[in-house]
Specification:
This protein has 505 residues and is α+β, with helices and mostly antiparallel strands. The protein contains eleven helices and 30 strands. Strand 17 (291-298) and strand 18 (301-308) form a beta hairpin. The N and C termini lie far apart (91 Å).
């Protein structure tokens, strides 16, 4: 074939790609196949989905993707800029916590990552901190070097504690506290995103500064350090083999505290763990000693990362993963244990798993049935915003939710992803479609909650759109309206103690 003719074929093929971007690749001389495949990918370059796919592929293919958390954060502007970076940060990054701490100026910090409603923070200092408190959840402090005193303000008065190197401390939600390093402290934090600070001598209102009662024993019991080395000595090392039982594994872990739905604990082991995943949140892994490989199953194939001592990793919500330690490794974990799933299959995604709903838990009255593209994310939205609990969840091997049943108050709400094979097979007259396919939802749902203002605020923060402002209504509710990210309309109400009188005119 003449050279000129080959160039003409290439010109014709490129023109065809430009003219019809969504058409299959043109057929031509086999010698042009490789370059046309590249051209086919490049035609997608301006598209957001191509950029996201490229970013995910690069992250998945980087075997040593590590981070020390960017520049030290000192000013409020530094913090705001870093939070924006975290929103775009790829997953599957190994965070070298010790390296992040090694060059930090005193009284500064780095944000390493985010997980659930928390930030992973590395911080060091040699001066007393301002008061702070956390809304929505507790805070974990793990001291890696040095030690610090911590004062917590309770309704029974201040409680003083000390956190030594190698120990963990949980600051309860809503309680003001501050640290006084002795003489310095380097620490790793799991800190709620909603945090308040104060430079006042006492941040509480004057009415709360006088102790109303002695410090409760339950409160005092929580406000002490957990020595992780001592906790590891209390449990046997686990050598994982084909004969290892669930009882063997349970005996080798030591749970020391809880933060929201995360259980914090330690274990040491050798070998390969079963697959596991956590539908209700991310999991935190921090290597204390040794090293371990973590393999995560993604839509683009398995991603493997190696964690060495002092390195942290976030296992994303809902993705199957397992760990392998050739030699002994000691780990600190923060795991949503209550809803964790495990599997010993070669590929756990090949098994369709069903969580059956207890018959007594299902409402037998009217049950709304919602069709939602991306139902797996919607389940988390309804849990976080409306406090829904999962009665039943049926997933296909791809992770698509074909059917789920949620408990909201006294009502059961069902939902399915219309892209699932089950829905496509059982669709009645082609009506199993999300609301936006009809131009909007003709059905409005009304839900009662304890605090409508808080729920609507959380819904909007999670991606909902306000369609009717929250205000006191003449029918006796404080009510507002939202459209959730999938187009379903919810009116959220809280009964008023004092019902407004209707205008007689």
């Amino acid at each position: 074939m003449a050279k000129g003719k080959l160039i003409e074929q290439l010109d014709d093929a490129v023109e065809a790609l430009v003219a019809k971007p969504n058409a299959p690749l043109p057929t031509s001389d086999p010698r042009l196949a490789a370059i046309l495949r590249i051209a086919g990918d490049l035609r997608d370059l301006p598209r957001a989905d191509f950029r996201n796919r490229l970013k995910a592929d690069l992250a998945a293919q980087s075997e040593e993707l590590k981070s020390v958390g960017g520049k030290p954060l000192i000013t409020h502007q530094d913090i705001e800029e870093r939070l924006k970076e975290l929103a775009e940060q790829p997953k599957f990054i190994v965070h070298d916590v010790r390296a992040a701490l090694s060059d930090l100026p005193d009284m500064s910090m780095r944000f390493l990552d985010s997980m659930n409603d928390h930030l992973l923070v590395a911080s060091r200092g040699d001066k007393r901190t301002h008061w702070e408190r956390h809304l929505g959840s507790d805070e974990m402090i793990y001291v890696m070097d040095g030690e610090t005193d911590i004062v917590t303000l309770t309704d029974g008065g201040p409680v003083e504690s000390t956190i030594h190197a190698g120990s963990l401390f949980v600051c309860p939600e809503g309680l003001w506290h501050r640290l006084t390093p002795r003489p310095f402290v380097s620490a790793f934090y799991l800190t709620p995103s909603r945090t308040e600070g104060s430079a006042a001598r006492d941040p509480r209102p004057k009415s709360e500064r006088v102790a109303k009662r002695p410090v409760r024993r339950t409160t005092a019991a929580k406000l002490h350090e957990h020595d992780l080395r001592a906790a590891l000595r209390e449990v046997p090392h686990l050598n994982i083999t084909a004969d290892t039982t669930g009882e063997d594994a349970d005996a080798a872990v030591r749970n020391v505290a809880k933060i929201g739905n995360l259980t914090l604990g330690v274990m040491s082991y050798t070998g390969q763990t079963p697959w596991e995943r956590h539908p209700d949140g991310d999991e935190l892994l921090l290597t204390l000693d040794g090293e371990v490989e973590v393999t995560t199953l993604t839509d683009n194939g398995p991603v493997t990362r190696k964690l060495r001592a002092g390195e942290a990793f976030v296992c994303p919500q809902g993705l199957w993963h397992r760990q392998f330690a050739e030699k002994s490794v000691s780990m600190l974990y923060g795991t949503p244990i209550d809803t964790s799933e495990s599997s010993t299959a070669d590929d756990p995604r090949a098994v369709v798993e069903k969580v059956e709903a207890p018959a007594a838990a299902v409402s037998r009255s009217i049950m709304p049935f919602l069709y939602i593209e991306g139902a797996a994310r919607a389940v988390e939205f309804y849990k976080n915003v409306f406090g829904a609990s999962v009665l039943m969840r049926d997933e296909e091997p791809s992770g698509i939710v074909s059917h789920a049943m949620l408990k909201m108050g006294q009502t059961t709400v069902m939902l399915s992803d219309p892209s699932s094979a089950d829905v496509k097979q059982n669709d009645v007259r082609g009506l199993s479609r999300p609301p936006r396919s009809y131009g909007g939802s003709p059905v409005h749902l009304y839900i009662y909650v304890a605090d409508v203002d808080d729920v609507v605020k959380r819904a909007i923060a999670a991606g909902a759109k306000a369609i009717d402002q929250v205000e006191d209504r003449d029918w006796g509710d404080r009510c507002g309206g939202i459209e959730d990210p999938w187009g379903h309309v919810w009116f959220v109400g809280t009964p008023l103690k004092d019902v407004p009188k209707k205008d007689s005119n």
